Amino acid sequence: MTDEPLSITEPPPFIERLRRQLRGLYFGRDREAVRFQVAMLLVDIVILCFFILGPYLRAGAAYVIVDYVIAAIIAFELGARALIAPNLRYWAMRPMTWVDIVVLGTLLFPNQLHNFAFLRVLRIWAISQSKLVTLTLRRLGHGDKEDVIQACVNFLVFLFLVTGFVYSNFFYGEDGFTGFVDALYFSVATVTTTGFGDIVLPGTLGKLTSIVTMIIGISLFVRLAQAIVRPYKVIFPCPQCGLSRHEADAVHCKACGHVLNIPDDGA
């Protein structure tokens, strides 16, 4: 036979075309790519609003329909990220991949996996890591507030993560928005170490939840305070030693003395 067998390791041509198109949309900087990234960012924000209002909306008839629509969107994102990843191992090792898989499971099987629904709030952190958000802040002249904004996002993510966990495991049976408000009230009182004591989580799990919340909450408070009060530094890697953070008006690297040429955003 003269025909050589096709290599089973090479993907079909249409998969390669789809992969290139998706990479252009997710990582490109042209008008079409930016529009796609903005659209996906807005979709993520709408999904988050739905997750936050879920305890109040779940009694409605349209809740299940919206639930499955969001599941389809997240499934599309998982598939798209798998295609644009360098390999499947890289895709599988990313923490947000597993978070989205769990979130997808809570959407498809809400009655069986409602205890894991609190992980949905981690999508706030995923949005904050978007390069589009970072570029938008810099274009608006707020690049010096990136650390403060990231510290605020980390704190809010943790706060709502605890709230979701407490609500799913201790207040899920309450009607309407009451259970969610009680969970949020307990989380804020615990994270701030105020500890009014009018709402206490029962059992060993409740005590362990309170302990972990107080310890991590204090750490995030300290991190947020440091981000607010410490001097602003720009990210500009030194060509000589690689030190990435310098004062905005630095002329020489404080580690090795190499001459720097930091661009002035105000120029």
From TrEMBL:
<dbReference type="GO" id="GO:0008076">
    <property type="term" value="C:voltage-gated potassium channel complex"/>
</dbReference>
<dbReference type="GO" id="GO:0005249">
    <property type="term" value="F:voltage-gated potassium channel activity"/>
</dbReference>
<protein>
    <submittedName>
        <fullName>Ion transporter</fullName>
    </submittedName>
</protein>
<feature type="transmembrane region" description="Helical">
    <location>
        <begin position="38"/>
        <end position="57"/>
    </location>
</feature>
<dbReference type="InterPro" id="IPR013099">
    <property type="entry name" value="K_chnl_dom"/>
</dbReference>
<keyword id="KW-0813">Transport</keyword>
<keyword id="KW-0812">Transmembrane</keyword>
<dbReference type="InterPro" id="IPR028325">
    <property type="entry name" value="VG_K_chnl"/>
</dbReference>
<keyword id="KW-0472">Membrane</keyword>
<feature type="transmembrane region" description="Helical">
    <location>
        <begin position="148"/>
        <end position="171"/>
    </location>
</feature>
<dbReference type="Pfam" id="PF07885">
    <property type="entry name" value="Ion_trans_2"/>
</dbReference>
<feature type="domain" description="Potassium channel">
    <location>
        <begin position="156"/>
        <end position="229"/>
    </location>
</feature>
<feature type="transmembrane region" description="Helical">
    <location>
        <begin position="208"/>
        <end position="229"/>
    </location>
</feature>
<keyword id="KW-0407">Ion channel</keyword>
<dbReference type="GO" id="GO:0001508">
    <property type="term" value="P:action potential"/>
</dbReference>
<keyword id="KW-0406">Ion transport</keyword>
<keyword id="KW-1133">Transmembrane helix</keyword>
<dbReference type="InterPro" id="IPR003938">
    <property type="entry name" value="K_chnl_volt-dep_EAG/ELK/ERG"/>
</dbReference>
<feature type="transmembrane region" description="Helical">
    <location>
        <begin position="63"/>
        <end position="84"/>
    </location>
</feature>
